[in-house]
Structures are given as C-alpha cells and as structure tokens.
Amino acid sequence: MPDNTVDGIVLGSSVIAHGWVSAVSWEKYGMAAFQFGTSVQPIGSIPGFIEYAQKNHDIKYVIIDVRSLRQQSLMTSVTPSKVQEAYLNIPDIASRYSMLMDLFDYAERMYDFYGEPEKESDKLDRNKASMYLPLLAFHNRWVDGLEKADFVDVKNEYLGANDRYTAFLSKDMTANVKNLNYGKTTELDKFQKSELDRLFDYLEQSGLEALFISTPSFKSAHIQRELGSFLEYCKENGYNTIDFCTPEMLEEAGFDTKVDFSDNGHVNLAGAQKLTSYVCQYLIDNGYPYEDRRGQDGYEIWEKGTENYKEYYRKGWAGEDVKLED
C-alpha cells in the first residue's frame, strides 16, 4: 500500500483472513483498515506485523482475534510452515528478520512451558535460521543471476480479502448453535496469560487503541469456553471485546446461520461483509480514532481495490449481480 494510506490493521488466524473485507470498511465507512490474517497466526508475530505497518503508515488502532492462543492451536502456530506463512507476508527483509527472531523467542517460551513437539520437523529451531530466510537459503541466486520475478511484488487486487473458492461456499450451521451455549469459561493457563500480558504491555507502549474479538464459529463447546475466557481476560485488563460466538451476537450482527458460513469455523464472503460492517460501526460508536478517507488524495488504491472486489464478488457468487450489504 502507498505510504500513509492505512489507519488500522486487523490481525488473527484464518477466521480473520476469511472474515474481514477491507472493501466493505472502505465503501461503507471510508475506513482504511487492512487485514493481515494468516492461517493459525502465532500471537508472537503480532508485534512484528504492527511494527512493519508503522514503518510506512500512521497506524492508530489494531483489531485482534484471539483464536490462535487456544491450547489446540499453540504448537501448530509455530511449526516452520505456519511461521513462514506469517513473516513471508511481509516484503521488507529487515522486518521479516525481526519477526522471525521474535517467533524463535515465542516458540522457546512455549517449549519451556509445554515441552517440545514430538516430531523434529515441527520444531522451530533458531540454529536453522537460514531455512527460513530466502536471502540466505537461496543465496546462490546472486551468483546464478537474478530475474524479473525477484523484484516484482505479488499484488493483492482485493485489499487483502479472501480470494479462495471457500469464500463462496455456504453451509447451514443452524444445528451447531447449541455449541455457543457453553456455560462457564475455562481457566487460562500461565503461558496463555503471560503471552496476553506481554501483548498488553506492547500495545500500551505503542499507544495503539486495540479491540479484541472472537469471530463467529461453531466449534465444540470446549473451544467456545476457551475463547470466552480469552475475551474475559482482555476485558479484565481494560480492553474492549466483541464475542460473536453467542446466539445473541449473531442475531444482533445480522448473521443468517443458514447461508453466511462456509464451514463450522469460518464465515463466507456474505458473512464477512456483516462481520466487517458491525466491527467498523463498533469502532466509530466507541470512539476509536476514525476519519472518513473517501475522496481524499492518495487513497485511489482503496477505490480501485474496492471495485475489483465487487466485480470478483459478483462473478463468484453464482454469477449473480450481488451488491455490498446496505
């Protein structure tokens, strides 16, 4: 994105990659909020994403989904493939290296608490750093000769919106609503609390406004209890939260459990429009830093990306002429 054209970033696992549509935040609110979601995004990568964004943009707020702190997800989040998926989203080599070092530290804290993964191939190893840095791993390219592909960025034409076929799947989740009535939350373990505390300290030092959310999903009642406990802990520490994983919130945000989900863990693009709209309005209503950027010079890329997304959405959704939600 051109310098100084992003006000806020949205972070989290695949639920965010599926759930946030920057074209909606732009067209309906003029809100320049870009999503940086990656599959099972490790919470240890969040400062790295923020610091990279702050290099070229005046970031004022951050929206964070809490899902990757689940015990079931923690070890998966620091496998070499997931770590690469996180930091390779950053084109700046220095920022990549900084995030990678942070993730080595994060993995080591995790191993100290839970123990190392059973498979050696699943372990993040600081002594094999060259495996994770293309500049080091493929250094012979400098000798063999560079090509155009080494300098041309891969562009996202839809402002980071999900462009996989799953965006257009629709599955009836009505029978799974029972999982949302989970009763009491579970107690977070010391590692989960310490990592959230570490993140809170970072956010306080950065001066950023933050909103923690749990995006809509219909996983087991056990998982819903754990997600609920994350939000309770965030709230206890003075942060605003939105828990979409309740029947009441699904109704308030206008979700249709018959058509707005691609599976039991992700919204489709129809549901993503509703999620994005609700969160944007929440930010405005609760006094988060906000300026309508529509029509301002320098933001043409947001207009173009929104038009690209709308055309993509129209073609993908059964060939119908579908408009963004009113």
Architecture blueprint of SSEs:
Layout: E1 8-11, H1 14-19, H2 22-29, E2 33-35, H3 46-56, E3 61-65, H4 71-77, H5 80-87, H6 93-114, H7 134-137, H8 141-144, H9 190-206, E4 209-214, H10 221-236, E5 240-243, H11 247-252, H12 269-285, H13 300-316
Helix pairs in contact: 2-12, 2-13, 3-6
Distance between the termini: 27 Å
The major beta sheet can be summarized as:
5 strands, parallel
Low-confidence stretches: 318-326
What is the H/E string?
Answer: EHHEHEHHHHHHEHEHHH
Tally of helical runs: 13
How are the strands ordered across the major sheet?
2-1-3-4-5
Rounded average pLDDT: 88
The rough form would be described as globular
Query: What proportion of the residues is helical, as a percent range?
Result: 40-55%
Counting helices, strands and paired strands, the structural category is alpha/beta
Oligomer: single chain
Strand proportion, as a percent range, falls in: 5-15%
Q: How large, in whole angstroms, is the Cα Rg?
A: 20 Å
* Overall number of strands: 5
